[in-house]
Amino acid sequence: MQPNSPRLITPRSLVLSGMIVFAVAVRLLAYFQPAALPLNFSPVMAIAIFGGALFSDRRLALLVPLLAMFVSDLVIGLHVLIPVIYGCMALGVLLGSGLLRRKRSAGRVIAAAVGGATGFYLITNFFVWLTSGMYAMTASGLAACYVAGLPFYQYGSLPGTLLWSGVLFGGFALLSLRFKALNAIPQPAR
């Protein structure tokens, strides 16, 4: 390694990666032990927003949450809407990068969490309506699809994204107070 090149493995990257691995483990727990958490109470969008906000290398910010999703999906199972879901995760990374990279506050984290969960709900339910054959291809069919998906949003993805965003961002902020090396943001190689 050259003297001025950034290190890939730093205390910051280890903590960020560890927090994401923890959140993925919770996703698998929710799948295999459904009584443990409300349905769709997933940390996945929070992982994407967190990665977008805190990874200095934007490629890594996108790669880590998508790789974590892919590994857990290999265990849970792949399905036809995976590209749509991964696209939503990429939008979550962009949301975290755009809204939280330079300035983080509780209000901004809440806005990103609500925006990410709401965008995920609107986009994925639209594609369920479009591809599943379960709903009429009419405005009332689309409305019925959104109504059917509302409990997953209302009791699962929205509160889950809010809680896990608080855990990830709050946990990292607390660790950063204790371990100053976490505040060092390495510059990506050009």
From TrEMBL:
Listed transmembrane segments: 12-30, 76-97, 109-128, 160-179
Superkingdom, natural source: Bacteria
Any idea which UniProt keywords this protein has?
Membrane, Transmembrane, Transmembrane helix
This one is known as Rod shape-determining protein MreD
Which InterPro entries does its entry note?
DUF6580 (IPR046487)
Question: Could you tell me which Pfam families the record lists for this protein?
Answer: DUF6580
